[in-house]
Specification:
alpha+beta, Alpha-D-Glucose-1,6-Bisphosphate, Chain A, domain 4, 2 domains, nine-stranded antiparallel beta sheet, 9 helices, 29% helix, dioxygenase, Prolyl 4-hydroxylase alpha subunit domain-containing protein, Polyketide_cyclase/dehydratase, L-ascorbic acid binding, Pro_4_hyd_alph
Length: 379
């Protein structure tokens, strides 16, 4: 079965920026003008949340020889003009906001627009003219790059396919019942080879051509190596300080409920063994053994899953000039059931790694995860 790889990210709600409160609320507009600091508080028409200011504004709305006033009363109708004339004569409180409130169930934006324009016409300060905010270009969240490394050769099938990429000359991949595997760019696994591709354009937009999927191998095993990258502000010592506290992994690993160690605390890390108790994916327990530890750049543990061997690892390198650390988290899965595990993990692995690295960064930099302090565990 052709499996499309998907990224799971939280999308942002930009509704408040597109429809700011000052667009449809008289009170918010007053606050908006005050925050501009372009009108002196001593100005006779300085906007205030007061009955006196609303009486001044209502008087301006009734003045003749104003294109804005004529347009507003044409829109509202003569009955509303008579209503305002009566309340101005009575010097009633909060005349303008009362009228706008009457339109709230229908559309307060249009009358408020005329009221703002009349005030702007009289005050004559261009910088106080209401404008919709200039929106920064919305950049959809996504990782910038993905790296696949192939750990074995596959004689037939197993391609990583980019169906929206132009089909190169000489592409002869054909799969019965799977037209997706015959379209676009297909990369066949070769031991020691890899695929590095960018998910975004340099300007930040998602690159639709990065859509990709995996085709099953006709024979053999498809082993996959996936990296998720993070640029952090902590140093290598802080990275290792978090990783070596194995019993505290559940603090930042979103999939772990508990870790127990089967070896004494004095055991060297490379010989440490224990059991992982999973929080997600139906729970379960997995024995693990830490291996290939390098305090300056690499940490790894092995666990046997049904039908496969897996190595879960972290690598990092510190920039010599600015002290920043590039950190990667990944997993290698190989064995007879590698394809099944790949399909089972694919829907969850991306978001899980992303959350783990985000928690790891917060813990190493600030000693906190989700606002909870854990510094006492890492001293």
């Amino acid at each position: 079965m052709y499996k499309v790889h998907t990224d799971y990210f939280t999308h942002l709600d930009v509704g408040a920026e597109v429809n700011p409160p000052a667009l449809k609320s008289f009170s918010h507009w007053i606050t908006w003008v005050q925050r501009l600091n372009v009108i002196s508080p001593h100005h006779p028409l300085y906007p205030r949340h007061s009955a006196a200011f609303e009486l001044q504004l209502a008087t301006l709305l009734l003045q003749p020889h104003s294109i804005v006033n004529d347009a507003m009363w044409k829109y509202l109708g003569p009955a509303w003009k008579v209503w305002m004339q009566e309340h101005v004569a009575l010097k009633s409180d909060y005349i303008v906001s009362s009228m706008i409130s009457a339109f709230r169930p229908v559309n307060p934006v249009v009358p408020l627009c005329y009221i703002r324009q009349r005030w702007e016409e009289i005050v004559g300060v261009p910088d106080a003219t209401f404008r919709l905010p200039l929106l920064a270009k919305y950049i959809e969240p996504n990782r910038h790059a993905t790296l696949f490394l192939y750990l074995n050769n596959v004689d037939e099938g197993g391609e990583t396919v980019f169906p929206l990429h132009p089909t190169p000359p000489g592409n002869v991949t054909t799969r019965a019942g799977m037209p997706e595997c015959s379209r676009g760019l297909a990369v066949r696994p070769q031991e020691g080879g890899g695929v590095l591709f960018y998910s975004k354009h340099p300007s930040g937009e998602n690159d639709y051509r990065s859509l990709h999927g995996g085709c099953p191998p006709a024979n053999g095993t498809h082993a996959l190596f996936v990296c998720y990258c993070l640029l952090t502000m902590f140093n290598s010592d802080e990275v290792f300080n978090v990783l070596k506290r194995v019993e505290h992994w559940p603090v930042w690993d979103v999939d772990l409920k508990k870790v127990t160690l089967d070896t004494p605390a004095s055991t060297p890390l490379n010989s440490t063994k224990g059991t992982l108790f999973m929080k997600n994916y139906g729970g379960g327990e997995h024995a693990f053994a830490i291996q290939n530890v390098d305090e300056a750049r690499h940490f790894e543990y092995y666990t046997r899953l049904p039908g496969v061997d897996s190595e879960w690892y972290w690598t990092w390198s510190e920039h010599p000039t600015d002290g920043y650390v590039d950190m990667k988290m990944g997993v290698r899965v190989h064995g007879g059931a590698a394809l099944l595990w790949r399909g089972a993990l694919a829907p969850f692995l991306g978001s899980a790694f992303d959350s783990c690295l985000r928690n790891f960064k917060s813990l190493a930099e600030h000693g906190q995860v989700d606002g909870q302090d854990f510094t006492h565990l890492y001293q």
